[in-house]
Amino acid sequence: MRSSLFPLAVTLAVQVLVSMAVVTVPVLAPAVAAETGASASHVGIFIAMVYGASMVASLVSGPLVQRFGAIRLSQACLVVCAVGLACVATAVPTLFVVGAIFLGMGYGPVTPASSHILAKSTPRERMSFIFSLKQTGVPIGGALAGALVPALVLWGGWRAAALAVAGACLATSISAQPLREALDTDRDPDRPLVIASLAGPLRYTLRDPVLRRLAFCSFFFAALQLCLITFLVTYLTLNVGISLVAAGLMLASAQAGGAVGRIGWGMIADHWGRPVRLLGLLAIAMGAAAVATGRFTPQWPAVSVALVCAAFGATAIGWNGVYLAQVARLAPPGKAGDATGGALVFTYAGVLFGPPAFTFLIGGGISFASAFVVLAVPAVACGLWLFWRDGNQNEPERGAPGKLENR
Q: Which domain of life does this protein belong to (predicted)?
C-alpha cells in the first residue's frame, strides 16, 4: 500500500498545480477585464486555446515520457505552466495568446506522465481506486484556484496573483527533483522521438457503435463542463452581484462537488453495473443544475447558491471517471488505451467548442443565464438518448478496465 501511495501523492500534487494554473485565468477574468477594458467573456477564447494546445501536447507525450522519464516531463510541465502565467501577467494581448499555448503545453502531458508512474506502482486489484483518486487532482486544483486566487487579487492585484501561482508551480517542480532517480529508472535516453499514427485510436472508436455513441455524447458533456469552470465566476460577479471572493468560493464549491463525484459516481457505477444508464442520469442532472444556475438572483441565499454550484460540479465535472471506465470496458482486448485516446478526441473537441460557443452567445446579446441553458439542452438530449439506448441491456465488457490510462 505504501509503495502505491507515494507515487500517488507525487502525481496528485503535479496534477493539482497544473490544474490550478489553468483555472487561475478564468478566476482572474473579471479583474483583468476591469483593468484592460476587454470583455470578460473573452476568457472563453483563451480557454479554447489552452485546451487546443493541451490536446496536441498530450498526443505527443508518450515518446517524451519514454525518453526523458515521467517525473522529468512533469517537472517541465510545471515550468511551462509557470511561464504561461507569467505571460498572462504582462497584460500584453499577444502574450495572452502565448500564455494560453504555454498553459496548454504544460497541462496536456501531465495525465499520460502520471499514468505511466501509477501503472508501474499500483497493484492491479487497486488500480481503479488509485487512478480515481489521482483524477481528483483536476477539480482540487480548480477549487484551490477559486478559493485562493481572489484573496491574492485583493492582497496584491491580479498580476501578483498570477505570479504567485506561477511561483507555486516552480516550487513544486523543484521539490520533485529528488524523486526522479527512483521513479524515472525506466527512461531510455536513446529512444527516438517518433510520433505514432493517430488514425488507429479513432478507428477503434468509430468502428464500435456504443463507443461512438459515448464519444459523441462526451462532446456535449465536456462543453457544458468547461463553460461551468470558465464562466461561473464572471457570471456570479457581473450578473448576480456577489463579490469576487464569494464567487471564487462558489467555484471552489463546484470543483469540490466534482472531486467527490468523480469517486462517488465510479463506485455507484461499479456497484449498480449500469454505467451507461448512470451517464444518462448524470447528463439530465447536469442540465437541471445548469438551469438552476441560470435562475440565480441577488436575493438567493449564499448557501443555496453554493449547493446548486456543488450539484452542478458533481454532475458536470464528475461524469468523466464513469465515461472513461466504460470506454475501457468496451474496447477490444488489449486496446483500452487506443480506444480511450480515440474517444478523448471527441471529448477534447467539446472542450474546444464549449467556451467559444458561450462567448459567441454572450456577444450576440444572450444573457449568461440563458447561455447556460442553451449549452445544457444538447447535454440533456444526449442523456435521454443514452438512458433510452441502454434499455434493459448491460453492455459487454470487452476490454480491461485496469488499463484505462496505461497508454
A: Bacteria
CB 405 within 8 A of CB 111: yes
| Position 89, amino acid | A
Q: Where are the alpha helices (DSSP H) in 69-122?
A: 70-89, 93-107, 110-121
Which residues, including other chains, have CB under 8 Å from residue 129's CB and lie 6 or more apart? none
- Condensed to tens digits (0 to 9), the pLDDT of residues 145-201 reads 988 999 999 999 999 999 999 999 999 999 988 888 778 887 878 776 655 555 555
Following DSSP, what letter does each residue of 134-181 receive, concatenated? HHTHHHHHHHHHHHHHHHHHHHH-HHHHHHHHHHHHHHHHHHTGGGHH
Domains detected in the chain: 1-193 (1.20.1250.20), 197-400 (1.20.1250.20)
Q: How far apart are the first and last CA of the chain?
A: 23
Prediction pTM value: 0.72
The residue ranges of the chain whose pLDDT is under 50 are: 1-2, 334, 392, 395-397, 399-407
